[in-house]
Amino acid sequence: MDAETCFECGLQAVEDHHVVPVSRGGTRTVPLCEGCHGKVHELERSDRHACLVRYATKARAELGLWSGGRTPVGWRVEDDRLVPCAYEQRVIARILHDHGLGETVRGIRGSLYAARLWPRHHGTWSRPQDRARGHWSHGAIHNVIKRARAE
What's the pLDDT score for residue 99? Predict the structure, then answer.
């Protein structure tokens, strides 16, 4: 390698980086300093990892398996599969029914309390400070309505 400047940052280059890997028939190189060369390979590794995660997530979805993350409201995970949660489906139906009648989020919240329909204890329905008391958050009710509109 000749005393060249880094293709990326202009510092003195110390390595030649193959644009296309040699294993794939690449012959062209660009001069890079040690820092930029490390960054290029870091990006390649993170891109590869992201690709593998996307592939695994898609493959699990095609098999009907839950791929992780927060469980959607109205569903629970059983044997790595999403199955409807009867109680939460009833709650969603009540929220959407009341909303369809023109009820406000605050009114829907009162209606849920009156019907003794409580949020799930360790889920995403209530604020952390309210979980022990089982209070409905306005955001949780709003999100149920928003998701229903999107479907």
Answer: 96
Encoded amino acid at 151, one letter: E
* Conformation bin of residue 30: beta by default, left when phi > 0, alpha when psi is -120 to 50: beta
How many residues in total does the chain contain?
151
**Closest to 15 in 3D by CA, of 45, 41, 37:** 37
Element at 46 (helix H, strand E): helix 34-62
> Which pLDDT tens digit goes with each residue over 20-67?
878 788 888 888 888 888 888 776 667 767 776 777 788 877 887 887
Q: What's the token pair of residue 22?
A: 């040699």
What tokens appear for 75 in the block? 């569903």
CB 67, CB 61: distance < 8 Å: yes
pLDDT for res 125: 47
Sign of CA dihedral 115, 118, 124, 127: positive
